[in-house]
Amino acid sequence: MKRKEILVKTLKFNGAVADNDDAEVYDWFGMECITPKKVNDFLNEANGEDVTIQINSGGGSVFAGSEIFTDLSKYQGKVTAEISGLCASAATFPILAADKVGISPIGQMMIHNVSSLAQGDYRDMSDAGKFLTGASNNLANLYAKKMNISVEDAQQMMDDETWFNAKQALESGMADEILFENNKQVKMVASISPILPQEKINQIKNMINKKTNDKKNSSLDNKFTSDQMESIKNMIDEKISEVKAEFEANNTAVKPPKNQKFKPLFLGGIK
């Protein structure tokens, strides 16, 4: 008699880690994102059963990631994290809450410090520095526990912006196993998925809300004026140009671009 296969509920943790209020903008552009609400709804539906969180994300909002970490940590069932592609920045938070972590043979992980934008006088800059130091130290403590190393060593790895391939993730303790080790064939793909800048999200949300209010109903009128369409086009072109220029300047198969690509992924939640 065949053994009955146990189906585990799986959540695709893909795209930017975004705040709940920003999800509508990503949806409007047809871009993937993961929010605390999506994770919470998934866990409520799972109702204590074992779950798998399948991660392919470059990170995003620190505060959204923190909420997701908290919900996964409190969940009564077993949580398995599987890194199917990229697990960087705030997208590493679920693995810190998981009972078991697996990584694809061609998966990658990355940890670094929290970053943000700030303006004001020396007092504002000092306050921002204290906040970033505290937030990064919180993460260093969690990474240190995960890898069974000192907090100082974990903080140094964050300072250095440390990347792990599958073997390095396993050796460091960031992962517990490499998936599909017995498979002879593995298909590889590559892509660049930029996160929307917070200022652009806010601008577009204001435009969407204005159009909705003008129509006095709940449906979104997609017929923007020529000026509005030009504004949106410029936003998209600007982001595409930035990513293209960065990619061309750092085009290498040895190591992904340092700092520039993923530092902004943390600042989405710091306001």
Q: What layout of secondary structure does this protein have?
A:
Layout: E1 9-14, E2 16-17, H1 23-28, E3 33-34, H2 36-46, E4 51-57, H3 62-74, E5 79-88, H4 93-97, E6 100-103, E7 108-111, H5 122-147, H6 151-159, E8 162-164, H7 166-172, E9 177-178, H8 198-215, H9 226-249, H10 263-267
Helix pairs in contact: 2-3, 5-6
What would you say this structure looks like, in words?
The protein is of the alpha/beta class and 271 residues long. Mean pLDDT is 82; it is low at 253-265 and 267-271. The strands form two sheets. Strands 1, 4, 5, 6, 7, 8 and 9 form a seven-stranded mixed β-sheet that branches. Strands 2-3 form a two-stranded parallel sheet. The protein has helices at residues 23-28, 36-46, 62-74, 93-97, 122-147, 151-159, 166-172, 198-215, 226-249, 263-267; strands spanning 9-14, 16-17, 33-34, 51-57, 79-88, 100-103, 108-111, 162-164, 177-178. The chain has ten helices and nine strands. Helix 2 (36-46) runs parallel beside helix 3 (62-74) and helix 5 crosses helix 6 (151-159). Helix content is 46%, strand content 15%. The chain has one domain (1-112, 161-271): 2-enoyl-CoA Hydratase, Chain A, domain 1, CATH 3.90.226. The relative contact order is 0.14. Strand 2, helix 1 and strand 3 (33-34) form a beta-alpha-beta unit.
What are the defining features of this structure?
10 helices; 2-enoyl-CoA Hydratase, Chain A, domain 1; 9 strands; 271 residues; two-stranded parallel sheet; ClpP/TepA; ClpP/crotonase-like_dom_sf; alpha/beta; ATP-dependent Clp protease proteolytic subunit; ATP-dependent peptidase activity
